[in-house]
Structures are given as structure tokens and as C-alpha cells.
Known about the structure:
11 helices, single chain, alpha+beta, four-stranded antiparallel beta sheet, 8 strands, Jelly Rolls, globular
Amino acid sequence: MSPLSKIHKNLFILIYLNEIVPLSSELKSFLANKIKRSVFAKNELIHKEGEICNKLYVIKKGLVRGYFVSDKVDVTTWISFDSEIFTSITGFFKNEPARENIQCLEDTHCEYLEYQDFQYCLRNFPEMREINRIMMVEYYIHAENRAFMTRIPSADKRLSYFLRNTDPKMSERIPKKYLASFLTMRPETLSRIFNEHAKELKSNIEQN
Length: 208
């Protein structure tokens, strides 16, 4: 195996992207020289509100949330897990100050591509443009799911909707105060619902 092939084999982003659209050898070689790795500690801030976020991350293993603070209230807007992409949408795609903070909820291992390298890929590799299109569709689907979920009047049904559309094991990894914020309910309400449906939730987790 050549040194470059070994690099390809060990880079998680290449595996991740190649499963979306097969990558040309030229794109693989370019990415192999540009992709960088990061390890963040639990509770570490990756990016702060107001900063320019110039990195597109893929989580190899870990748990990350986006949040903002309004009137001293911490509001979780999204949560990303293993094998998911995250960045500041405004900060990365519009090259403007980020509107939210990004924080690790677990020790998190990532790989990332910087903005200028991502733009180069879009200009020079057709498969990256197709990957970008697919990722944007997925982003809008996730955004629609979040918007739909937050408008469900019943807290019980909001949690049920979340569990139906997310790996149930993730609900065990997310600190309850952040999950409650994400589901737009009070932490004590979330605890009550979990207690009332403990057997059902345990069954869902075991089945997955």
C-alpha cells in the first residue's frame, strides 16, 4: 500500500464523503493534504458567538451542540453526534460573525476542512458540488424536523418525536438540561416524562 493510500484509509472525512458520492483520485489526493484533525475536551468551546467560523467539521466520535444566550437563558439550538457534519452556518457559508456558540458535550474527535479549501473543491471538483447539494438537502430536512418539533404543543409528544427521529441511545448521552432546552421544555418536565415512560424508552433503546 502506498503512503498516500494509507492516508486515504485513515482519514474519516474521505470515507464519509466517498459514501455520499464516489470521489475521484484527484479529489482524494487534494483532501488528504488539506484535512486536519482536532480533539476537543468535554465542555470546551469550539467557536464563540461573534467569531468567524472557517471550518467545516465531521465528528468521528463525540457530541456537540450549538447554543446562544438570551436574557441570561442558555438556549440549545442543535445537537450533532458521531458521523455528522457541523459548523456555524452563518459563520462558514457567509463568512460572517457566528450567531451562536459551539460546545462539546463529550470529548470529541473531529476532522475538518477549512473554508478556502472547501471553496476550491467546489470550483474544481464536480463530485464535491454534488456532495454539497446533497448535504444542503439534508441540512434543510434536519432544520424542518427541528422547526416542526418545536411547534408541537405537547412536551410529551415533542420528546416522542425526537426519539422517533434520532437514535434513542443519543438521549442517554445528552445532558438532560441541554436536551430539555433543545426540546423547549423545563428540565423538570423532561425528567417527569422520562420517569412516566421509563419502560417504553428503555425498550426503544434496547431495540436499537
